[in-house]
Amino acid sequence: MRPPVRIACVAVALLALAAPAAGARRGPYTVPPSAIRVHDGDTFYVGAETIRLRGIDTPELGHPRSHMAARRLAALLREGPVTIVPRLEDVYGRTVADVYVGGRSVADILRREGFAKPRVH
After folding, report:
1. What is the dihedral of CA 91, 45, 39, 83, to 10 degrees?
2. Domain with 98 in it: what CATH number?
3. Which pTM was predicted?
4. Quick check: is 118 in a domain?
5. Distance (Å, whole) CA 9 – CA 18
6. Angstrom distances, CA of residue 114 to CA of 24, 34, 50
7. Is 87 exposed, middle or buried (CB count within 10 Å of its CB: 0-12, 13-18, 19+)?
8. CA dist., res. 12 & res. 15, Å (int)
9. Is 117 contained in some domain?
10. Cα angle 28-20-54, degrees, rounded to a multiple of 5
11. What's the pLDDT tens digit per position in 90-110?
12. How far, CA to CA in Å, does 79 sit from each of 17, 29, 30?
């Protein structure tokens, strides 16, 4: 690949990351806990929209503590109402968002409680 083409590809990729999720709401919105289905410790669904928590990566399904993380996320979201602040769409088409319950960041709570995967350097 020639250098100018490579730069253009990188620019397009960065723009795609910054774009809001297709069909997603742009501003903050609130949903009742009954509208949420938890997938794993950092991902849940609101209707057809997939929401990925920004700021935390929990163990993948099937790995140690993954079910504990999913149960804790479900418990936190049940305390609702849940405020979702969309930030961007990831490469999987999920809305990456800051999520709050009672004014508290769900990702921060999960991280403080030890559910974040260790960072690999």
Report:
1. 100
2. 2.40.50.90
3. 0.77
4. no
5. 15
6. 30, 26, 24
7. middle
8. 5
9. no
10. 65
11. 999 999 999 999 999 999 999
12. 31, 16, 13
| Structure-block tokens of residue 43 | 């991902």
Here the tokens at position 59 are 């163990």
Q: Is residue 46 part of a domain?
A: yes
**Nearest one of 3, 48, 1 to 24, comparing CA atoms:** 48
- Domain range for 43 is 3-112
Burial code of 7-46, b = ≥16 C-beta within 10 A, e = fewer? eeeeeeeeeeeeeebeebeeeeeebeeeebebebbbbbeb
Paired strand residues for 95: 51, 89
Q: Does 30 score more than 60 pLDDT?
A: yes
Positive or negative: CA dihedral 69, 70, 75, 78: positive
Q: What is the mean pLDDT of residues 26-42?
A: 96
* Number of domains, the chain: 1
Contact 110, 69 (CB under 8 A): yes
